[in-house]
From TrEMBL:
Bilayer disposition of the protein: Multi-pass membrane protein
Species lineage: Eukaryota, Metazoa, Ecdysozoa, Arthropoda, Hexapoda
Molecular function terms from GO: odorant binding; olfactory receptor activity
Keyword tRNA-binding: no
GO terms for biological process, alphabetical: signal transduction
Annotated signal sequence range: none
Gene Ontology CC entries for this record: plasma membrane
Protein name: Olfactory receptor 49
Spans traversing the lipid bilayer: 22-42, 72-99
Pfam families in the record: 7tm_6
Annotated compartments: Membrane
Sorted UniProt keywords: Membrane, Olfaction, Receptor, Sensory transduction, Transducer, Transmembrane, Transmembrane helix
Chief place where the protein resides: membrane
Organism from which the protein derives: Manduca sexta
Length: 251
C-alpha cells in the first residue's frame, strides 16, 4: 500500500479507530485485575481478593505466613490471567480490525473506480494512440484496478480465515468458560462477584462487536461492488465484477 494514496489514508483512518478499540479493551481488562487485587487493602482486617477461595495446604488463610503466601499467589494468578487475556484478545482485535479497514477501503476504491478511470484518461498522455477509442482506455484502467481489488480482497479473506482457524478452539473454549463463570457469578450474588462479572462480559461483548464490524464491512463492500457503475463496463470487466460480487457474498 503506497503512503499518501486514498486507499492508504482510508485504511489508516479505520486503523486509528481499531487502535483505540484495542487499547480501551486492554486497559479495561487490566484495570479490572488491578482493582480486584487491591480491594483487600481498603477492607478492615485481613482479607484476600476472594475470601471464599481457599488454597489447598494454606489453611487457615488469615494466619502468617499462610496469608502472605495466599495473597501473593492470588495476585500473581489474577495478574497473569488478565494480562494474558488482554494481550491475546488485543491481537485478535487488531488483526480483525485490519481486515475491516481493508474491506472498507476497498469499498471506496471499487465504488470510485469508474470516476478514477475517466479522470486518469484525461490526465495521462500515454493513451494517445487510443484517443479515438476512449471507452477502451477507460476499460483498460478499470480492468487493472479490478484485478488489484480481487487480489486484495482474496488476501483479506485468507487472513480472516487464518485467524479464524488459528483461534477457533481457544475462542470457543473461552466462550464456554465465560458463560459458565457468568452463570456462577450471578448465582453467587452480585454483591460478592461484582468485580468478576465485568471481566467476562467485556470479553464476550468485544468478541461479538468485532465480529459484527467485520460482517458490516463485508456487507458494505458487497453493496459497493453493485454500486460501482458496472453497467458501463465492457463484458470482460463485467465478468470480473461478477466474480468479486460472488466472492463478497461468501465472506
Amino acid at each position: 500500500v503506497l503512503p499518501g494514496t486514498r486507499y492508504y489514508n482510508n485504511i489508516m483512518k479505520t486503523l486509528r479507530i481499531v487502535k483505540r478499540r484495542a487499547v480501551g479493551y486492554w486497559v479495561t481488562i487490566v484495570m479490572n485485575g488491578i482493582i480486584y487485587n487491591i480491594t483487600p487493602i481498603f477492607r478492615s482486617g485481613r482479607h484476600l481478593s476472594e475470601d471464599l477461595m481457599v488454597i489447598y495446604g494454606l489453611e487457615p488463610t488469615i494466619e502468617t505466613p499462610n496469608y502472605e503466601i495466599s495473597s501473593l499467589l492470588m495476585t500473581v494468578a489474577v495478574s497473569f490471567v488478565c494480562f494474558t487475556v488482554a494481550s491475546t484478545s488485543g491481537i485478535i482485535i487488531i488483526l480483525v480490525g485490519y481486515v475491516e479497514a481493508n474491506m472498507l477501503s476497498l469499498s471506496v476504491e471499487i465504488k470510485e473506480i469508474w470516476n478514477d478511470a475517466v479522470a486518469d484518461k484525461k490526465e495521462k498522455k500515454e493513451y494517445q494512440h487510443l484517443k479515438n477509442q476512449p471507452m477502451k482506455i477507460v476499460n483498460m484502467y478499470v480492468k487493472r484496478r479490478l484485478v488489484n481489488i480481487i487480489e486484495r480482497h482474496k488476501a483479506n479473506i485468507n487472513l480472516l480465515s487464518d485467524v479464524e482457524h488459528l483461534f477457533r478452539i481457544p475462542i470457543g473454549a473461552g466462550f464456554l468458560c465465560q458463560t459458565i463463570s457468568i452463570v456462577a457469578e450471578l448465582l453467587g450474588g452480585l454483591k460478592n462477584t461484582y468485580l468478576e462479572v465485568p471481566f467476562g462480559l467485556v470479553q464476550i461483548t468485544m468478541d461479538c462487536y468485532i465480529g459484527q464490524k467485520v460482517m458490516d464491512a463485508s456487507l458494505i463492500f458487497e453493496e459497493a461492488v453493485y454500486d460501482c457503475k458496472w453497467e458501463k463496463f465492457d463484458n470482460s470487466n463485467m465478468k470480473l465484477v461478477l466474480t468479486i460480487l460472488q466472492n463478497s457474498q461468501k465472506t
